[in-house]
Design brief:
By secondary structure, this protein is mainly α. The chain contains one helix and no strands. It is rod-shaped.
């Protein structure tokens, strides 16, 4: 009976370990996706600022030439 109890505890601990590992991997995957989205958003924002700056400069030059 004691051996069966020890085996059940070991099985439960193994199951909990596997569950924790899978949860951690899912959490890490979700974090990686979130970090990638933030990087893409930051790059898009930077490109938008550059484009608006270029358009503003072009408008200044055009108004100065006329």
């Amino acid at each position: 009976m004691i051996a069966l109890g020890i085996a059940l505890v070991a099985l439960a601990l193994s199951g909990a370990g596997v569950w924790a590992l899978l949860a951690w991997r899912q959490y890490r995957r979700t974090f990686d996706v979130f970090a990638e989205r933030l990087a893409v958003d930051a790059r898009l924002e930077k490109l938008t600022v550059q484009a608006l700056s270029a358009m503003r400069e072009a408008a200044r030059r055009a108004s100065g030439l006329t």
